[in-house]
Amino acid sequence: xxxxxxxWMNIRRFRALHEAGASYAEIAAEAGCxxxxxxxxxxxxxxAVPPAGSPxxxxxxxxxxxxxxxxxxxxxxxxxxxASVICERLAAGYGYxxxxxxxxxxxxxxxxKIAAELAAGDENPLAGLxxxxxxxxxxxxxxxxxxxxxxxxxxxxxxGRNGCPTRSRRTRxxxxxxxxxxxxxxxxRQQHRHLMxxx
Length: 199
Hints:
Blueprint: H1 5-13, H2 15-20, H3 24-31, H4 35-42, H5 68-77, H6 83-94, H7 100-121, E1 157-158, E2 165-166, H8 172-198
Antiparallel strand pairs: 1-2
Helix pairs in contact: 3-4, 5-7, 6-7
């Protein structure tokens, strides 16, 4: 086990005590560690830097290594492909049993490289980009066409600055009564027309 840098500093603090004649066991009792550890780090010629473990990167084979070519091919076909989709495809079609985190880390590492390669070999660098289209306010208008069916009973009041139809301040009950009255007038007109046609 590697000694924590804080504990190493604690032991190094007692170097002057050791030189004054304190034993390794006494210093170990003060520092809270084994006397052999104290002897190792206070001995003449001991390193003046805290102990560190050897880096593990590259010592173990990665579970994603057999699938790197497949992932690279998918990213070359579609550089925007999400790591979650890649992980699902690997598990379903290729028997990948590793974690999503490994796929995500690999894709994050490789995607910029593949995107740079694709951009360098692209004849049209603007292909696939979305360009926002803006015009000066009032220069263009948009119209949405639609169809409405049915009979509108009553006419809304027009008011306001832009001529928009608005509702009056009447209550719902008043509005319903008004609509019934308009409806009754419409029925009376139709009956009157019907009587006029018969004459």
